[in-house]
From TrEMBL, chains A, B, C:
Catalyzes the phosphorylation of the hydroxyl group of 4-methyl-5-beta-hydroxyethylthiazole (THZ). It is an enzyme of class 2 (transferase). Pfam families: HK. Substrate binds at M46, G195. It catalyses: 5-(2-hydroxyethyl)-4-methylthiazole + ATP = 4-methyl-5-(2-phosphooxyethyl)-thiazole + ADP + H(+). InterPro entries: Hyethyz_kinase, Ribokinase-like. GO terms for molecular function: ATP binding; hydroxyethylthiazole kinase activity; magnesium ion binding. ATP binds at R122, T168. GO terms for biological process: thiamine biosynthetic process; thiamine diphosphate biosynthetic process. Its cofactor is Mg(2+). This is Hydroxyethylthiazole kinase. It comes from Chloroflexus islandicus.
Length: 277, 277, 277
């Protein structure tokens, strides 16, 4: 099966299975990521209290941990939910928002990566560079200096924590440390809106809930996210009208659109991703 | 006066009186429900600190308690605000988001219902079923299995806590345990957006602030909410453009549109709702 | 240089410098104000934990303190961030949401004004009147009774705390206690949406980050905000479509539009604002 066909099939699988995506996430994007979860085909829930997160995550298809507006008690809840997710084999997708910007953020993300088995880490080049110790400067939550070598930084981080790392930017990179996929979908409008990185993380989580090859799941999620952005762009008059068109496009995103539009290529020798398993 | 005429009159009363709707609600929907409050004609305020909730609620026309992203200290604030509201005769509208999904949510909602006199409980069929102990399965915040008999579950819950229960779904049910009204307005697009149940709760609260017959207030609020959704649907290209058109429609919703569009019928013998009082 | 030319130049300076605007703000408007920050040309970050706010604010061009959904621990974080901002000469813009509505809100805002050097306070007439002790009644977060004399109330508050006060309403007033500017831009649709005052505060912060004459910065920010609203209004069918058009207009707001549309006039004898410095 060609890669785009597999991506299209995964997108449909999300629609069919309607996985619950449990988010412990930041206040800025809760509404947006709940909507994106619904539009891609999943069910969202936001729950952060330590008394209920273990019970809630047990119903979930994936757990999103996002430190965008972190405080220590939320990190504790993330660890409780994450450990339960690990016990149950539920994939965790981590969004290390602002890693590198403050020591609290860098330390909290490292702690999550050390104490939990994280399926996918999705960050911008500055965040991933900072976590890998390979360059990247984060101002607030924005990468103002890219990692020196995003592919190498992602591979190092993936190997260090035995996880899959997705670096989003003009070209997205997804790697488990050996296999490397590049995703060349997306649109400049995405940078004019808050929380589009967080929403990409949510889409990856929805795909990780239905596909255990997390390299494929992350690349497929990012390709779908990017194709929807490309479909929306011609309808936009600015960031806000782009957002409306983009969300509509995520909801309607069809197998035909994915087959025609997804641009995922392997940068590693291993070509297994592109063939049927 | 015909029922639709009364609903139209209540909608106008909200616009004239501009009741303050004090929300202690979840992080996901705060922005949406504040906007819906304004669009229907009220004034929103979100305040959750126990030091100020009693003082804030004293100015309000209604109090919304919504446990969508609960934590124990917020429940304490809800109880403080709720007790003050009870003292002052200010109606409380409870949205038991995710009741049945975790024991914390189920227990917290029961506690609110036991310690406060709640004017209206608005939930989906799964939440109401779970609270009534009559079926219903909630996954996250979504009813994945409906209550066995939504009307019976609503009636039981209403009788148990001497409240009005509104169950929203394809057909909305409103009952005080004896009178039963059905509302057949709304649109499928509502299910593609997060927080539409919470927004329906807010609209009910605005109507409860201006009408002490809470069965009528809840049914009127749901009918207006649903008529606005129906008016918006032809303008939608997807969930996000639906949301824009829907909010615009709530704002503009006129007596003529309500008279022509509201579909509320009595399922009980008591026909008093449909006649002038 | 004519005043409108200077305003246009400041708007462009924001785009060029991309200042980080650190918000410690309320849950209702976080998403909106993050987007408005991006659209006007800055970078937003929301961070409230006392362990990281001092480190985060050190990167910022301005700090927004907004008490819309306050609790005592957030006030503590505001004080920590604010003191560090004062040490570093980073301007603080305070939005005293709901001052006058509850004693907690009034006391918290006074404490912030007493313990910090605040560059600009932006509130509605009720909030500023309440803080100045000169009339104004606030119901929730809305001014239901205006200050007796908004200009006098703003001047008194400005003198008392050696700050710049911006009172927004049909006519906006900006004063440092002696100089007084009036801004006659804006549109009625702004009142139909939640958080537009908070968004105006954010725009003022972006301008204060690039211009140390805070009277000019505040007036310029409000003029740009208002011109964008006027440009958006003809495209609106209601509050939600207005919001989309408004955000798009903020993003695209050009020097030509500002030159043609800004309406700022001096109400004080001092004409220095209108000439080149």
């Amino acid at each position: 099966m060609a890669l785009n066909e597999r991506i299209a099939e995964l997108r449909e699988r999300v629609r069919q299975q309607r996985p619950l995506i449990h988010h412990i996430t930041n206040f800025v994007v809760m509404n947006d990521t709940a909507n994106v979860t619904l539009h891609i085909g999943g069910l969202p829930v936001m729950a952060h209290d330590r008394e209920e997160v273990a019970e809630m995550v047990a119903m979930a298809g994936a757990l999103v941990l996002n430190v965008g507006t972190l405080s220590p008690d939320w990190i504790e809840a993330m660890l409780i939910a994450g450990k339960r997710a690990n016990e149950l084999g539920i994939p965790i997708v981590l969004d290390p928002v602002g890693a590198g910007a403050t020591s609290l953020r860098t330390a909290s993300n490292r702690r999550l990566l050390e104490e939990l088995r994280v399926a996918v880490v999705r960050g911008n080049s500055g965040e991933i560079g900072a976590l890998a110790g390979m360059g990247g400067v984060v101002k607030g939550v924005e990468a103002v200096v890219e990692a020196d070598d995003p592919v190498a930084a992602a591979q190092k981080l993936a190997q260090q924590y035995q996880t899959v790392v997705a670096v989003t930017g003009k070209r997205d990179i997804v790697t488990d440390g050996s296999r490397v996929l590049a995703v060349d979908n997306g649109h400049e409008w995405l940078k004019t809106l808050t929380g589009t990185g967080c929403s990409a993380t949510t889409v990856i989580a929805a795909f990780a809930a239905v596909e255990r090859d997390y390299v494929l799941a992350a690349a497929a999620g990012l390709a779908c996210f990017g194709v929807a952005a490309e479909l929306a762009a011609p309808l936009a008059h600015g960031p806000a009208s782009f957002k409306v068109a983009f969300y509509d496009a995520i909801y309607h995103l069809s197998a035909e659109q994915i087959r025609a539009g997804a641009r995922v290529t392997s940068l590693s020798d291993d070509q297994s991703i592109a063939v049927a398993r």
